[in-house]
Amino acid sequence: MPQTLVLVPAYNEAENLRVLLPRILAQGPAVAGGLAVLVIDDGSHDDTADVVREVSPGPEVLRVTSLRVNRGKSEALRVGFREAVATGATTVVMMDADGQDDPSELPRLVERLGEGVDLVTGARTVRNDRFVKRHTSRLYNRTTSALARVPGTDFNSGFKAMRSDVVAELAPMMYGEMHRYLTVMAHWKGFRTSEVPVQHHARMHGTTKYGPARFWRGFMDLLTVRFLLSYENRPSHLFGGIGAAGLGLGGLMLLYLLALRLSGATVGDRPMLLAAVLLVLGGLQFFLFGLSAELGVRHRNGRRADEAAADAGSEA
């Protein structure tokens, strides 16, 4: 089995794959240990799977896994990651099927991993995309870097190479639009990330499969990633903090109103009274929710510990 597995998620990209796949396979001699290609057919309605089989010199070098329905790029990559772990590939490369990623850059990305990096992104310094897409992507990258506090210029690039331990660690987190945040998640997990400038081409055939809604979904998934990696094992620090702030502010407002009432003023018709009550009740709910989440985390960790102990006992 070749040491490098190239994952190509594809949705209705038969025309592009007919040209792209031979170019990828041609890079095999330049990659240490050789390479194999796995196309994940994400519920395509064209003859994507047939094209892969047609150009394949053999299943050990090029094969296709087909999903019955379109599940999105993250789910397709999760299937590919699982396959990479099962086959024992030491390096995994991701490439888009539209032909915009240049296969000749693939050996450079794999070589960069040999320099002590765990995940390397092919940064598209010169984009061959429409004006709107170029500028929205630039805004997205700046926002991601600021919110995630991770160095990088092209988080959204689908051209990446990573070690097998990164793949195994991140595979369970691949859903929604999480494929956009592989670099962020790897960095927060303690892996070393880097970028290599690569050539970027215009799409060979067809049109993009992503609409404007991807930016909103991507932003929401960024918040999800930030929460999971920062508070997955300590949710009460977030929800309890918000609750304590609400309780404290609401309590101070109620004390102020109490002082006014004791001095003879009327407080029943003041908006501050309603705001104070809402802050106290909302803060109490956040605080209790944080404690409930901590119980869930404790239960999950206890179950994992039991499973690990059972596995250790069976091995003994």
Describe what you observe in this structure.
It comes from Cellulomonas wangsupingiae. This is Glycosyltransferase family 2 protein. It is a single chain. The chain is of the alpha/beta class and 316 residues long. It folds into two domains: 228 residues, Spore Coat Polysaccharide Biosynthesis Protein SpsA, Chain A (Alpha-Beta Complex); 81 residues. The protein is 53% helix and 13% strand. The protein has ten helices and seven strands. A seven-stranded mixed beta sheet has the order 3-2-1-4-6-5-7, sandwiched between helices. Helix 1 packs parallel to helix 2 and helix 9 runs antiparallel to helix 10. The longest helix is centred in the C-terminal third of the chain and has 45 residues. The chain is elongated and about 90 Å long. The model has no long low-confidence stretch (mean pLDDT 83).
What would you say about this model in short?
The chain is an alpha/beta fold and 316 residues long. It folds into two domains: 4-231, Spore Coat Polysaccharide Biosynthesis Protein SpsA, Chain A, CATH 3.90.550.10; 235-315.
